[in-house]
Amino acid sequence: MYHLARSLYLYATSKPGKSAANNWSEYSILLLGLDNAGKTTLLTQIKALFNTTVDPSNGAVGEAPASTTAGNTVPTVGQNVATISLPDMYLKIWDVGGQWSLRRLWTSYFKSCHAVVFVVDSTDLGNGEIEEAPKTPGAMWHGRKKSYVGKVGDDEVPETPWTPMTPMTPGFFDSGHAQGRLDECRAVLESVLENDDTQGIPILVLANKQDREDCLEVVRIKEGFIKKVFEGEKGGMVRDSRVLPVSALRGTGVKEAVEWVRSRVVWNKETRPPVMR
Description:
- This protein is of the alpha/beta class.
- It has a single domain, classed as Rossmann fold (3-Layer(aba) Sandwich).
- It is built from seven helices and eleven strands.
- The protein has helices at 2-13, 39-49, 100-103, 107-110, 182-193, 218-231, 254-267, and strands at 25-32, 52-54, 61-63, 79-86, 89-96, 115-121, 140-142, 147-149, 203-208, 241-245, 275-276.
- Strands 1, 4, 5, 6, 9, 10 and 11 form a seven-stranded mixed beta sheet that branches. Strands 2-3 form a two-stranded antiparallel ribbon. It has a two-stranded antiparallel ribbon with strand order 7-8.
- A hairpin with a 6-residue loop joins strand 2 and strand 3 (61-63).
- Helix 5 packs across helix 6.
- The two termini are 25 Å apart.
């Protein structure tokens, strides 16, 4: 009975034509970004859009529509994971919580991931223009690596520079000021780019919430924010990267984002080989 059940399970979860001599590639994708950027909504929408539907009248297989309930999510505490099946591979997508207390966990995923999708909230970036110094009141650049630290006097030297992975004083990044969370988003994205384990892998930045009237246009996000980060001292190197607009809530742009990731992990498979299933 056990062997029968196991055989049925393997048959149900296998791809058509799959054999021991023809395994399928699995690539791990990291969904990162600040809390409330829409990562879990995006993952929910990806799962909905990449399911297939079967017409009960004739058995025809077709594409599934976008989810109408993708926005019914709660903040991620830890991680969510889902695997979608594409014609030539599996994509295993990891949605890791974006609260500052969880960001220190991100680095444990870097070495085994094949691409990073960094989601930004287009409605919380102010005018999208970053400067050489942060606009956050009471903050300053400090040290060779230009880490954020709290407000100090001219003669004081902070004991521990702040990094995007460590706790901060409540209200340090004030989403109420003109720049929204632009400075925080910049610092966190830079921390991802400068990590040794993300060197050489594709980076997709998704400008989410483009369906809202108060969103910042994707061209301004790209030119005023993302381009400056990637070309800055912490960008590290020439990268395989792109910026795309999406609405995770409505599902627009989601398929294009997944297709870009699919094509780039295949292109990069010699540098970071997939897991074979």
